[in-house]
Amino acid sequence: MLEFKDGTCICGTVKVGERGQIVIPKKARDYFNISAGDSLVVLGDKAKGITIFKAENLQDFAAFLLNNAEEEA
Questions:
Q1: Where are the domains of the chain?
Q2: How far is CA 36 from CA 23, 24, 30, in A?
Q3: Of the candidates 7, 51, 1, 59, which has an alpha carbon nearest to the alpha carbon of residue 30?
């Protein structure tokens, strides 16, 4: 795994299996604390590609937005 100073990294390559599945490399699972049973969100942009992140991060961000929106209303 190649880590950069800005917190980004190149985690490796994966192959898509016959059923469309990929295996996240162990170093990436360890680095991002991804365990069996975790829910992941897959976002895509035809020009930029695919992003995968833990669903709990989206929930935390949505809660932050909702809490701040209520305070300003």
A1: 1-36, 39-73
A2: 11, 11, 11
A3: 1
Q: d(Cα 44, Cα 68) in Å, to the nearest integer? A: 27
Cβ–Cβ under 8 Å, residues 39 and 45: no
For each of the chain's 73 residues, which pLDDT tens digit applies? 888 888 888 888 999 999 999 999 999 999 999 999 999 989 889 999 998 988 888 877 788 778 887 665 5
Task: Please identify which residue in the block is written with the tokens 């897959």.
Answer: 42
Q: Report the predicted TM-score, pTM, of the whole model to 2 decimal places.
A: 0.68
According to DSSP, the residues that pair with 41 across neighbouring strands are: 53
What does the alpha-carbon distance between residue 7 and residue 52 come to, in Å, rounded to a whole number? Answer: 15
